[in-house]
Design goal:
Helices cover about 50% and strands about 10% of the residues. The chain is of the alpha/beta class. The protein folds into 3 domains: about 10-30 and about 130-325 and about 370-435, Glycerol-3-phosphate (1)-acyltransferase, CATH 3.40.1130; about 35-125, no CATH class; about 440-555, no CATH class. A hairpin with a 2-residue loop joins strand 15 (about 535) and strand 16. The protein is globular. It starts with 9 loop residues before the first helix and ends in an 8-residue tail after the last helix.
């Protein structure tokens, strides 16, 4: 268990960084994996084959899975090709097709396993990351510079002022929560960080947060689409990413991906993945999680126990809080198209591309905003809180031994059905922690109030009909809006007392008008059409769909 206390440096108190818990990069777990990359890929492929043979023991079952993978891969290449796809994909799968046909004419015992092995070896190589310590350091500096520019952490004084800074980046990226505890636990255990997912910035942001906290680099699953752009691919690889191709839904690929995560965690590599699977299109905090990679944490813990190793895996929920999300307009329209289909009518955007770019750049270099990251209480793989020394606690705060939950007949055993139930329990606890650690901002609250008010005025319309209501019909007198703001803020303060949500610092006390103005200034900061604005004493909207996205951040809390 983690017993070593870790003190922060004085630099952190001034707004900088925690002292690294492992100072020399050669001892970072991810570096150890990278040094033995070839052997690790071979182990992933070997263990995946063993697992598939266990779950699909007959020739017929194996052939069916190969045929399914072939069909889906052929369809994917035809219907949804990406620039990042390897150039030899078509020849490879044509070869698999020929191999399958040969089974009917010239079959030898075990030929189906040889075909399976080809596919699994390829998938393992595709998934594997390629971490480089020297690239990691360079990327870290670039990310730090990029976030400073994005958040205006520097005081801008002309063009050359963009490259000077007497602010710390941590002034604008605020980190709250159980920082000291996870630093202590990371010294003797393995940390799995599971954040909410709203933006393409999330992976880079969390990578920077990990560095700030003095933790060694984590491995993490990044969507293959991010590797379409070479510069993004460079950053992803440098920050410890392994590739997740969400187009691939076949059993063989999914098992390979899960085994990669399982073995990396088992070997002590701290890991990060977004359990929601993809960015929240609706703007809601995740309510249901993808359990595939989450289940690998439980499998890894059981394997560690079976090997009599004294090491625990800790799951740390992280809630990312943005005032604005760059992709919000496109994300919410994707969501509405998918859920509403023909009922959602999207007007063409009449503003020119040049105008958008110019407006974006002006705001990019002249506005300021902040991001807060809430580090939740660490959990064991069963969803129990752990104390400062990593001991698991039940609901009455009594120490429990997780070995007991994997033991049957006096022995630690593998039980798929039992572990699926544990994964469900863990996912529900993570969702609960996401909502508990959500930090209500002014921009979220004003969005919730305005959208709810207007929505209630048109109860006869469904959501998609309401989104077509003309903007000139949607306005609120500022005095009335102010009253609603006070009332709703009090309700959320009560929820905070009940430990069901948190409040951003600027929402806790102070002038109400300043709180509202702060929310208006930050909401839709980079959007061409403002979701909410104050004009001539009236609250108005120029983009009701995007306002709906921001409203959803605080939707679902019970008053």
């Amino acid at each position: 268990m983690a017993k070593t206390k870790v003190k922060s440096t004085k630099k952190w108190e001034k707004g900088r960084y925690y002292e690294p818990i492992i100072k020399r990069s050669k001892y970072w777990p991810v570096v150890q994996l990278s040094k033995n990359r070839k052997a690790f890929i071979e182990e992933v492929a070997k263990e995946t084959l063993i697992q598939i043979k266990k779950m699909r023991p007959s020739k017929t079952q194996i052939v069916e899975e190969i045929e399914t993978a072939l069909y889906r891969e052929k369809f994917r290449m035809r219907s949804n090709p990406w620039r990042v796809d390897p150039p030899d994909e078509k020849p490879f799968w044509d070869g698999i097709k020929s191999d399958l046909l040969s089974l009917d004419t010239d079959y030898n015992e075990g030929d189906e396993f040889k075909i399976l092995e080809k596919i699994i070896n390829r998938y393992a190589e595709e998934v594997a990351g390629n971490f480089k310590p020297n690239r990691y350091r360079f990327t870290r500096r670039v990310v730090k510079f990029g976030f400073r520019r994005l958040l205006n952490a520097a005081r801008v004084q002309g063009f050359f002022g963009l490259f000077k800074s007497d602010y710390y980046l941590t002034d604008n990226i605020q980190i709250f929560g159980k920082i000291k505890q996870i630093r202590n636990l990371a010294r003797d255990g393995t940390i799995i960080m599971v954040p909410t997912h709203f933006s393409n910035l999330d992976s880079i942001l969390i990578g920077w947060i990990i560095h700030v906290l003095g933790l060694p680099p984590f491995i993490y699953g990044a969507g293959l689409n991010l590797f379409n752009i070479k510069i993004f691919a460079y950053f992803m690889n440098s920050l410890g990413a392994y590739k997740v191709d969400r187009r691939k839904k076949n059993y063989l690929y999914i098992e390979t991906l899960k085994m990669y995560s399982h073995l990396a965690i088992r070997k002590g590599a701290h890991s990060l993945f977004f359990p929601g699977g993809t960015r929240s299109r609706s703007g809601h905090i995740e309510k249901k999680l993808k359990r595939g990679l989450l289940g690998t944490a439980i499998e890894a813990q059981r394997s560690i126990l079976m090997n009599n190793e004294n090491r625990k895996i800790y799951v740390v929920p992280v809630t990312i809080n943005y005032h604005f999300v760059l992709e919000a307009p496109s994300l919410i329209r994707d969501h509405l198209k998918r859920t509403g289909q023909e009922r959602f009518y999207e007007e063409k955007d009449k503003s020119s591309t040049s105008f958008k770019i110019i407006k974006f750049l002006i705001k990019f270099f002249s506005k300021g905003s902040s991001i807060s990251v809430s580090i939740g209480r660490p959990l064991d793989v069963l969803g129990n809180y752990v104390d400062k020394d990593g001991r698991s606690l039940d609901k009455q705060k009594r120490v429990i031994q997780i070995e007991d939950y994997f033991t049957l007949g006096g022995q630690i055993t593998e039980n798929i059905q039992r572990e699926e139930e544990y994964t469900r329990m863990l996912s529900e606890k993570i969702v609960e922690e996401f909502h508990r650690n959500n930090r209500l901002t002014g921009s979220h609250l004003i969005s919730y109030i305005a959208f709810s008010y207007w929505r209630n005025k048109y109860p006869q319309l469904d959501l998609y009909g309401f989104l077509r209501v003309p903007e000139e019909e949607l306005e609120i007198d500022y005095g009335k809006f102010r009253e609603m703001f006070i009332e709703h803020r009090e309700r959320f303060i009560e929820l905070k007392r009940q430990k069901k949500i948190n409040l951003s610092i600027h929402m806790r006390e102070g002038d109400i008008d300043e709180m509202i103005q702060h929310g208006l200034n930050n909401l839709g900061l980079f959007h061409v059409k403002r979701p909410l604005l104050l004009k001539d004493g009236k609250i108005l909207t120029h983009d009701l769909a995007t306002l709906y996205y921001y409203h959803n951040r605080t939707d679902g809390y019970e008053f």
